[in-house]
Amino acid sequence: MEKNGYPDVPREPPPSYYPQQMPAAPQEGFIQQPGYPTQSGFMPQPGFGQQAGASGSAPTQTVIRVIQTPNLSSESTRMTCPFCQADISTKVTYETSGMTHLAAAILCLLGLWCCVCIPYCTDSCMDSQHECPNCHKFLGRYRR
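Predicted structure:
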């Protein structure tokens, strides 16, 4: 029977976006990625992951290098530079900080106007910046 000039075609619902049954294993030719179980619904697409036998060599591993700086203090610290691998004593430069400004403000509020510049001249009231004297890379900051 025709309606509005169109033949009557039995209508089926559109295909589901989700497959009814998950495959038991990834597609052939792919290596199973660690951390992805085969029943999770994850299906590798072409170009994703590494193809087995494509290059004839074993898959490469990613090496993550963790650089841990030692506990820095307000003074020079002996350490191995993570950038140039040299055994060094860090070069320390001092920088004003919130504590420096707070100490100056307290002196100002106490009426000690002539002493306001003392926190800006005292290293113990400032942050310490550590750098490598060999390669001049920033290594860390000790905050007050």
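Summary: The chain has two helices and five strands.
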